[in-house]
Input
Amino acid sequence: MKRVLIGGIGNVLLGDDGVGPYAVRLLEAIYALDENVEIADLGTPALDLTHQIAGLDALILVDSVAGDGLLNDAPAGTVVLYRKEDILRETPAPRMDPHSPALSECLMTAAMLGASPEHVLLVGIVGKSYEPGGPLSAAVRESVPLAIDAILEELQRLGFAFRKKPAADDPIIWWSDGHAWRQLNS
Amino acid sequence: MAKRITIDPITRIEGHLRIDVEVDNYAVSNAWASCTMWRGIEKILRGRDPRDAWLFTQRFCGVCTTVHAMASVRSVEDALKLEIPLNAQYIRNLILIAHALHDHIVHFYQLSALDWVDVLQIPKADPAAASRLAETLSPWTRNSRNELKAAQDRVNAVASSGQLGIFANGYWGHPAMRLSPDVNLLAFSHYVQALEYQRKALQVVGILGAKTPHIQNLTVGGVANAIDLDSQSALGIDKLELIRTLLADVAQFVQQVYFVDVCAVAAMYPEWFKIGSGVRNYLAVPDLPLDSRGSAYDLPGGYIRDGNLASLKGFQTSSDPIFRQAVTEDIMHAYYQGNKALHPWAGETEPAFTGWDGEQKYSWVKAPRFNGEPMQVGPLAQVLIGYAHGHPLTRKYTDLAMEKIAAVGGVRPTPALLHSTLGRHAARAIRACMLAELAQKHLQLLVENVAKGDYTVHNQPVMPTHEVEGVGTHEAPRGTLSHWIVIKDEKIKNYQAVVPSTWNASPRDRSGAHGPYEASLLHTPLARPEEPLEVLRTVHSFDPCMACACHAFDPSGRKIAVAKIL
Output
């Protein structure tokens, strides 16, 4: 059976960098997905991402991206889609620490093992503020539904079912309110 | 003519390590280590419920998630003087060991082996000869000619594609690369196998922690695992047996492959036992508690000064009074307001970025000091301190490493030669062997305790109304980690994390003393200064991790090492 992973990437403590985990938690709260589709808040996994993606048929990631270098220096909240070949164009840098291995390197490692996912979509959202403890910028938060639409379109293209839940669950964005402990233990 | 080389490989918003070295006559004459991004995450914790802190600290860093979660709950438990049930100690210990085994394997193979192994020599190797060589080194059953041929084919496929892809960042053909094609092939074959075994170690973390990369089973006072031997969903016989199998597989890889490879590389580059020592003060905290009060441990701690094992002062507990009093963080050369050296409980984190200036402030990393002195932390510190204690398990694998290196290379290193770049790699492999053995022990302790009918996993915390302070420590893969908490009115009043890479990557302090990375680079010979492979070898030997990464996919170009004539 084909397997798909929808992963949110980013550090939830650093403002707009947390948009990936935020988006996948929202998606999971609103939609019921095919049983072969897994959703995960992956944080900032660096090289460990290789283990998450090896052997998948399709990979969908949501992450904040840099706006400069894009067409017209795209403003915050712009949703940019990348395919595998776009990501692989990035040459790995010399590694200084275990954070350095980037997405391109994890895909290359999976490919060397003969286990690279055939279909890869990176849903990038141009970020603005990466202040520790900061909330998502308004423009970034407002673009999350667009990012979710892009994910759903990809699922549809790949032939996986999804439907809206009759009532959405609580997405448990525990880092953005003051009730984390009670929420997780209730 | 002197020139300055800056190694600053990643662009923009990702916080990371930057190294500047001055090179004079093909040797490093001065060095600076800096972090390029603010680590002000601790401020987020002020005012929050101390029971929540671990959820947040687990997100400090995507690579070392569990270690920050563990140090955090331990800091609150220390402040509340809360005992931890035996089952919870064993489960936590197993998670910490599995995480460390994963981390040490990743570090050697994926993050530093290619500093020593020249991938582009592999097409010239003879898999049959490499297999025969492997048989003389290790009983590992996956060194067959066929397995090695398959690894060679993988490299050939990448090399012949014209695009080096994953290998595009290496200094191939560098004169400091000296292994034979057959040894390069053998090491690379293990690089590929390592991916399999590090995944098994992660699986153990996932089974016990409910999820990876962020575990969910911790709670102040213990763990949240339900234990029921007959259940498939709770922690029962099925899961415990799966953990046993996974840990046995990982132990075999560590002892028959990783340990052997490190000894073989060490034997073939013996001059690196004389390069890269730097700061010879070492610090490690006791870890892997064996009772609920935390008064007996499987890994000893303490500190030694100036490389003298006889100077050992041991720590009785993981929050020993000596340790509690001796730590300060100096900001004379860090981008923070003022220039005080404060104890972490009184620590301040007020940023004042002024741009890189090697004479003034040049890093976001504070300079932790122990009784005013820089300390090297990490597996080397732990092994030397264990050796000085006469700790049997440390002695067993350290002596075994010395014998193995001598058997391969004819050079017989002594513990004194461990103050070096290779010493750090050897110590990490020694520690991995120790942990692989301890993993089986702690699993057995857990099984036996549960078999007695003890299913307790949690003691309820009671928050005091008066102000209390605590320190939670963990001897993490990169060394001594400590989280310092002040609790008042059931809320966090102050929180500081003094992380291993802060000790090792620290900038100079008020007395001008270098941090360990900086000191270790002085006098390093460079064959080709524009390709500073030797600098990377030493920096990588510390297993650097700046713990402050903010990852975003950056589609634009990247800088690599930049050389500038002074």
